[in-house]
Each structure stands twice: as structure tokens, then as C-alpha cells.
Task: structure prediction
Amino acid sequence: MRRRRLAPLLAVSVTAMLAPALATSTATAAPAATPSTAPSSASAKGALDRYVQQKPRWKRCEADAPAEFECATIKVPLDYRVPGGKRIDLAISRIRSTAPDKRRGVLFSNPGGPGGPGLYMPLGLRETLPESAQRKYDLIGFDPRGVGRSSPVSCDLTPEEENWLRPYKEETFDKDVAWARDVANKCEEKAGDTLAHITTRNTARDMDLLRAILGEKKISYVGYSYGTYLGAVYTQLFPGRADRFVLDSAVDPARAWRGMIQWWAEGAEPAFDRWTGWAAERSEKYGLGDTPKEVDRTFWDLVAQADEKPIELEGQPITGDDIRSGMRGAVFSPQEATEAFVELKKAAAGEPASAKRLAAFTGSVGTGTAGAAADAAEVPSDNMTASFWAVVCGDNSAAWSRDPESYRQDAIEDKGRYPLYGDFASSIKPCAFWDKSAEPATKVNNKVRSLVVQNEWDSQTPLPSGQALHAALKGSKMLTVLGGEGHGVYPNGNACTDGTVTGYLISGKLPAKDVTCEATADSNAEARKNRKQDALPGSPLPERAPDRF
Result:
């Protein structure tokens, strides 16, 4: 493949480039750097300037990887306020445009998380983007700071300590408080000096530094789930450097992050009601009840039975809490939920049951690219969890109460409001004992032109969450897939959705008004298929990770 020279660097210092990101202001226009956050000395400004002079040493990512898939490592400041201080690695990758003479620029990407590695995203995009889009862009991937091959963080957590979505029980709550405190303390002891800087705002700054190193005036971007929040923060900090932004399966920026976890419970209730109606209409086939109320009773009777005596499945006990937890994600696809629940009833009755169809309740799904990337780079086993807490707690510490008893009360109340999952979502988390955020949370409120893409039935970022991001991004248009199931929309084989997104990436023209597409049987079947297989390189990780965004 013919090599081309990177565009020359802009004739402006990196200090000026990063000034918006170094400010605490969140106004729509790029704010000026302030003394409290921006470098104040000539030496600090020089240190930032030196970062942009880096020349990545591109080489084939892996011996068995495609030759055109190149990787490199650059250095970024741990703390942008002190750029002359500690530096950390940022692992980056690219696949060059297939038609350099028609190239528009660079297309950055993020698969979700927080904590999802994105180094292999270009491979996934190459498999899914139409050739017309691949001609337009160099596809750029990166592991966010603290993740994967980018100076990975660890808290030395055990598998049990990583188990964080815990149902509220009066008799175990004190133990859950101790667990949350222990996780926070272990993270502070192991990586306290680093974790404070593993935030979305700093990852957005890393993106802009990478943009400057690549010699680009602007970036385009495709972000999924958590990646929509990262993209939105970038548009807030660098509004003049955002070109074409696709934000797929969107986070409500005002609810980052405790409120977004609580969305899992709130969003599950209408999906559960939809499921009971769907199953009732097919009572002759599935036998769960002739009316939604009967299906509801069948479900809760089995939960009560499993609470009293766990259901044994291949030596693994399934409790009522396991059923509630598994059903939370499953009900967003009524067919999948029904088939799984029928098998669970068989197991409860001592009959042979399909373990494959019961994956929602047993957790036996593929690890996807996260596991593969971690193995290849010898990343700490708890890296995804450690980096997850760094962002979820550190982005906005003000969202998390410091009073353990408030979590008890919230869990009790929300279990009443949202019986399927309310106590899981609202009970205590390590953020209750985390250090105060180094910066205030980013208020997203700008007019950058972008495209928000959302399925109607999304278990991780429910439809109202996507609508909230659309409202915050006043220059955006929204594409809603009515009846669409699954987390991660583009591409899904639906001509309406794929045509709208691809058209925007190629032409830069947003639809004149918000777009509504109808899901097809094939596109929803594809979503169900994707949930049951290991992820392709770079595909949206949250599809395979029900406890992440």
C-alpha cells in the first residue's frame, strides 16, 4: 500500500490547541485557559509544545494482523495542568484511507466502557463501513488512557471484588458497604496518583493531542455508548475541531454516572411490560400465561421459588436475584427473554434445559475483544474494572453521596419503584468512598453538528437517555429506530439507518430534521445474533458486557 506523508503541522503552538481542554469552563464557545488549570510558565508551555512534535513509529500491530493495520505508541501528560510532569503511554492504531486522493481526514472511534479498549476498532470499522466511507478516512483507534495498552491501571481486585452490581438485602448491606470501601481503598493504595487523571475530560484532551500529532485540523468520530459521552465532551471542549460526529446509543450527560446506572433499572420496567404482553400473545407456544398479568405472575413466582431454593443448572445455582439481574437485559428483546425464561422454568422443574439459551442468567457469553486485547498485552486482569471506576467515580464525584445510609434508603425505595433491578442500580458503590474529582463535571451544551443514533429498545442506554443527549447537543439531529432492539445501531443492515449514517459520514450533511426508521425483522435478528457470539475485533463491547456502557 502506497505510503503518504502526514499533513504538515499547523502553525500554532500546542498550548493554544489544548487551551479549551485545560479550562474548567463548559461554555459553548472555546473557553480561554485559566491560571488554575492551564500551564502558567514558559517551561510548561514548551513541554506541551514538545508533545505535538512526536512522530509515531508506525508498525504492523501483530504478526498475524493485516499489514495495513498499523500501531504505535505516543506519550501524553498524566496531568495536563503539569505537562512537564509524569507521562503515560497512549496506544494508537490506524488503517489508511483506501483512496488517499479522495481522503477527507481521520475517523476516530471508541467502543464504549468506560474501560473498553479501542485499539482494534479500525479492524471492526473496516469490516462494517461501506467502501465509500473507507475511502474518505484514515481509521484511527486508541486504547483510552489507563486502558488496555495505554499504561493500564489496576487496583489488584479479586474476581469477587469486581462483582459490583449487588442486590440490596438488609442482612448483607453492611458487608456491601465494607466491600465498596475496600475497593476504593485498594484503588487509592495501588494507583491513587494515577486514577485521579483517568477521566473523560483527559481522554478528550488526549484525542485532541493525537489530532495535532497527526497534523489534522479536525477529527470525525464514531462513538458507541460511553463513547457517545466521550465524543460529546470533546465537542464541548473543542467545538471548532469536531467535524462529523456519530454518537450511537447515547449517554445522558447530565446523569453521568450514578444516574446512568440507575437508568438500567428505570429503562427495564417498560421493557418488562412490553415482554409480558409479547409472551401473552404467544401463550399457546410458550405457556407463560394468557394475559400480561399472568405472565408477570409466572415470572415473580419463579423468582420467589429460586429465592427459597436456587435452581441448579449444570452445577451452578441460579437465585431469584440472578433471575432479576439476567432478565433486566434480556427483556429488551422479548423473543430472547421468552426463550430463556422457558428454559429456566424447565430447569426449575428438573427437566433438561438449554444452557446456551440460559446465558442471560448464567453469564456464559464471550469475552470479545476486551479479553483478547488484555491477553495480548498482559494487561492486569482487573484493568477494565479499575479504569471503569476511575471514570465513573472521578468524572463527577458530586453525583455520589458520601453517606452509606443514603444508598440503603435509595435501594429500598427504588426496588419498590423498579422491582426488577432498582436495588441493584441504587445500592452502594465504591464511588461513595472515592476522592473528590480533580475537575468539575462537564456540562454538555453546545451547537456542534452531530448525529445521535438510538434504538427504541436499548438495555444499556434507554431511549430517553439518547433523547437527552440530543437536547444537550443543540446542533444535532437524531435518528431513532422504532422497534429497534439492542445496544449499538450502526450498521445493522437496515437501509434507512445505514443510509442516513453513511450519508452523513460521506457528505457531512445532516438530515434536515430528525429521522425515524422502522426496525426490520432482519435487523433485530442480527442484534440477537450479535449478542450470542464473540465480538468481532473492535465491535461495540457493551453488547457483550451487560455491566458496562
Q: What stands out?
A: The first helix runs from residue 14 to 18. Residues 152 and 237 are 25 Å apart (CA to CA).
